[in-house]
């Protein structure tokens, strides 16, 4: 197995009296596609927030690409190569597709004028954003205003915007939420295409058939604890995972999908 690009070591986080994450450790090997799953409220988004620097853990460490980034602000983590797309689309709806991609490049710019540098009309940033859209085969939409596009296309653009930061690892929070089956299949193929360029992918996703067709390995959380770390082929037969899902609205999917 390749070396881990990300290591979570004994992460814990409480909100008030509630222990939301409890001593969670796992590795993400470089170049893999891995899933982080679990019932509603298990702590998946909180783990993403700890990884991306939205929250600081009470205990434990986040090691990315050999460096301890536990105390590093979010923006600097993106600069190190750890990028994230969010559960709900956060594109700028009134801007064009290419302008949204250029906003994703900002983490690579520093100094005076950093916020607007990429938005110059003929800048090398624009050329690079256009090239990225072309590489990802969605350049038909380059000049379109985001608000006018179908939901499935906007989800792809959200992923491409995260890629504009040139990440080593991409964290995706429920990228298939709200997509129909053909849009989901297109997104899966798109994510495989991205990972084949060498980008590591960690995905939070409730759609178990997408998880199994995209990822080899899954880690499962329940009540903030890690209860499974292994193959996606065997996950639905694991007794602890079955117990965690029983009674939840995802039990059917987990067992039969
Ligand atoms: N900022 C916060 N303050 C207090 N409680 C929080 C906070 N963020 C999350 N929680 C609680 O932590 C628990 C885990 O939430 P989290 O959103 O990480 O779960 P999840 O696995 O992502 O759930 P879902 O699948 O529903 O998105 C929940 O009980 C939630 O209410």
Automatic annotation (TrEMBL):
MF terms (GO), sorted A to Z: ATP binding; ATP hydrolysis activity
A GO cellular component annotation in the UniProt record: plasma membrane
SUPFAM superfamilies noted in UniProt: P-loop containing nucleoside triphosphate hydrolases
Plastid recorded as keyword: no
Domain ABC transporter: 6-248
Organism superkingdom: Bacteria
Keyword ATP-binding: yes
PROSITE patterns from the UniProt entry: ABC_TRANSPORTER_2
Signal peptide: none
PANTHER family: CONSERVED COMPONENT OF ABC TRANSPORTER FOR NATURAL AMINO ACIDS-RELATED (PTHR45772)
Protein's name according to its UniProt entry: Branched-chain amino acid transport ATP-binding protein livG
Source organism per UniProt: Pseudooceanicola batsensis (strain ATCC BAA-863 / DSM 15984 / KCTC 12145 / HTCC2597) (Oceanicola batsensis)
Taxonomic placement: Bacteria, Pseudomonadati, Pseudomonadota, Alphaproteobacteria, Rhodobacterales
